[in-house]
Amino acid sequence: xxxxxxxxxxxxxxxxxxxxxxxxxxxxxxxxxxxxxxxxxxxxxxxxxxxxxxxxxxxxxxxxxxxxxxxxxxxxxxxxxxxxxxxxxxxxxxxxxxxxxxxxxxxxxxxxxxxxxxxxxxxxxxxxxxxxxxxxxxxxxxxxxxxxxxxxxxxxxxxxxxxxxxxxxxxxxxxxxxxxxxxxxxxxxxxxxxxxxxxxxxxxxxxxxxxxxxxxxxxxxxxxxxxxxxxxxxxxxxxxxxxxxxxxxxxxxxx
Length: 255
Description:
Blueprint: E1 7-14, H1 17-28, E2 31-34, E3 43-47, E4 50-57, H2 60-64, E5 70-76, H3 80-89, E6 93-101, E7 105-111, E8 117-123, E9 139-146, H4 149-160, E10 163-171, E11 174-180, E12 185-191, E13 200-207, H5 210-219, E14 223-231, E15 235-241, E16 247-252
Domain VOC: 6-123, 138-253
InterPro entries: Anthracycline_SecMetBiosynth, Glyas_Bleomycin-R_OHBP_Dase, Glyas_Fos-R_dOase_dom, VOC_core
GO molecular function: dioxygenase activity
């Protein structure tokens, strides 16, 4: 059995990269760096000088077609083209054909059976080093707001080797199914509650003090949409929107 695959990179597509850089640096504590080329600007989000994600401007043609700012996660795979076939065979869809960022990675944009989008990729620089889990600015939780949980879990488990952890009863026959990718639980799947939002992945960024982070969101023009709520492990979570309308979440202690 091969090693389970996991999310390794997080990317924000937004309508105002300058404002978004200032917002997330203030709220989450990221530093920013230049990872682009003259023809393709790209901002890196850094934790302890280690890249954990990036940001680029939504293309005008995408906005014209109704695209809105949002986050997408990248899952590392061994062979992008082969994985595209696996995604389709498992009931998912190809949203963007495999393509190359020369010298950096090969990638494809895909969606699970319910329509939640994510990216599969293979970098050209070998294994990616990651900051220690729980470090401020890293992603502490991955939450799928999708369709039927059983169908979703079967899809991701088949492709990436994820395994079930605890299942929490949400009432009305619905569950919050935790999953692991070769260790402790790293996220959960549930049937989406907000029918105004399509199926999507929501990423929880780690902060040291959830109340202080909430205040910083307001200072930079964002809004808290849910929380704070206490979760197991003596942590607290909130869900929020950045000033451009992208959904994100935070997890941290209450000091």
